[in-house]
Design brief:
alpha/beta; 8 strands; single chain; 4-stranded mixed β-sheet; 17% helix
Length: 137
């Protein structure tokens, strides 16, 4: 809906400058989940509070943040009626699918039972957020 000026005439609102800073994942323990993703990506922690942790890639760009959610419920994958559904997932391109999966599992992830595609692996982080490794073919 476009804003109306005091005179009742529709006016155009220009798009403001916007920069995506981070994707934020809820967690019962932000520091523990950040440590998992830090191990996965090798990114440094740039903000560390008991209720909020941010990782950012060394070359710049959007990072990952983790916020405390005391009522966090592990999402169901795939979705199930009457269960917490995932709100988003991360797609992570890898060169070696089997090697990346092995590394993630060693870091504390779990391979999801349901795998919908041959060249994609759905993995669950330690608190159940699904993420996908894929090889760009």
């Amino acid at each position: 809906m476009r804003p109306i000026s005091a005179t009742g005439i529709l006016r155009r609102v220009e798009r403001p400058a916007l920069t995506l800073s981070a994707t934020v994942l809820d967690a019962p323990d932000p520091r523990a989940l950040a440590a998992f993703y830090q191990s996965l990506f090798g990114w440094p922690v740039v903000q560390d509070d008991p209720t909020w942790v941010t990782l950012r890639p060394p070359g710049g760009g959007p990072g990952l943040s983790f916020q405390l959610e005391e009522l966090y419920e592990r999402p169901a994958w795939p979705a199930e009626r009457d269960r917490q559904q995932m709100q988003l997932h991360l797609d992570i391109e890898v060169e070696d699918l089997d090697g990346a999966v092995a590394y993630a599992l060693e870091a504390g992830a779990t391979l999801a039972e349901f795998q919908p595609q041959e060249n994609v692996r759905v993995i669950l982080d330690p608190v159940g957020h699904p993420f996908c490794f894929f090889v760009n073919v």
